Amino acid sequence: MRFSLFPRRKFHNVTEITPEILRELGVELLILDVDNTIAPYKTLTLEKPVTDWAEGLKGAGVSLFIVSNNKGERPEIFAALLGIPYLKRAGKPSPRGVREALAVTGTAPEKAALAGDQIYTDTIAANLAGVQMLLVEPIKFTNPFLAIRYFFELPFRREKR
Fold it and tell me: E strands along the chain, which residues?
């Protein structure tokens, strides 16, 4: 439960997070961000590699839970496609949504991780909630505001830990 802008590990995309890596980290619950983590902004479908990856994690005994700041229907749609619980309007960087996922699943923070693409929302929320942060590269830049935001995150994305 500390404020930090640094993730635990970094990945090119979410599908690189394997059951073996999660087992090595002691992770039983993987909390997923939606926008630019498991799907590009504004899409209502998931790519087959992502659905196959999620099924593989579940088959390996890893629980999944969507925690998104998204206010629309996308978290619910993706949760239904994956057969997992979700929380929208999470209010990240507040750790509230992450803590709610932990409470719903009965998972201790040290046995959970959050996979997300942003430092100033996902990473802060994960670190404040005491879960491991697994940072992924954003799927697609859709507007100049996001590109600027990611530019200011570069020092924390590049830092070797």
Answer: 9-11, 29-32, 63-67, 86-87, 112-116, 132-136
- 124, 93 contact by CB (below 8 A): yes
Q: Give the separation between CA 42 and CA 23, rounded to whole angstroms.
A: 32
Pair 131, 5: CB distance under 8 Å:
no
| Structure confidence by residue, pLDDT tens digits, 44-71 | 999 999 999 999 999 999 999 999 999 9
Task: Tell me the domains of the chain and their CATH numbers.
Answer: 9-158 (3.40.50.1000)
Residue 119 burial class via C-beta count within 10 angstroms: exposed 0-12, middle 13-18, buried 19 and up: buried
Q: Is the pTM of the predicted complex or chain greater than 0.85? A: yes
